[in-house]
Design goal:
The chain is 19% helix and 29% strand. It is an alpha+beta fold and 273 residues long.
Length: 273
Amino acid sequence: MYRCWTRFGIDYRKHAIKSSEVRYFLSLSYLGTRYNGWQKQPGANTVQGVLDQQIEKLLNASIHSLASGRTDAGVHAQNMLIQFDTEAEIPAHFIKRINLLLPEDIVAHQLYVSEREDLNVRFHSLWRQYEYKIHFYKDPFRFQTSYCLQRESNPEILEQCAHLLMGKHDFYRFQKTGGSIKTSVCNIIHSQWEFKTDQWSFHIQADRFLRGMVRLLVGSMLDTARGKISIAEFEDRVYNASGRKSASSAPAHGLCFKGCSMPEGSLIPWKLQ
């Protein structure tokens, strides 16, 4: 027997829980440099592949994780929330033991359960947040997590572009090809550049993101700030979904998934951390 649910008229049976299973939620961080993205792929080194393998080893049971966001190759995550279902007993000191098994560039933070049987990190996440970092001089301590930008850009133009993103828009022109989504409409809750002497950061928060969307947005904003395209052309890309897709994508290593928000009180820390 399975527990399953319907959302917006869609039956998510493929994510249903067996009556004998418990759904666990795990927060983790990873440096994406060595990985071909989050999602498992044949013959590729992925975060999901490594994580599932080590959890299976610890629990001596087969599991399949699901993440609140699917990062591309080279993209990092600071507070990714994942879920997995299992009938196996969770051992005491789970976090310490799984971190001993995981490589140094992946770390688990906290294990949770929920009283909601239908809670799902992908479908019930209220918003997700990303940060893109830029620096300006060769730095051996930043080259894996920040884009070294050696061409001058106008910060005032970047701020104008960020402001234009606010609200609900069809971001069809800011997505990589190959996705299977039914809509490209996203609601941008927060969009802002932060300028420090040695570091510029773009912060964006939305109800959902499209494949490659943040990197394409950053790439187009940088093109605008360098004078390659006008503010009017950037605005047209945001407000007119019928035109040609954006081609300028910022490098993956500057992007980091910063976290998601689940319904208040829905996650309960597991007692045997």
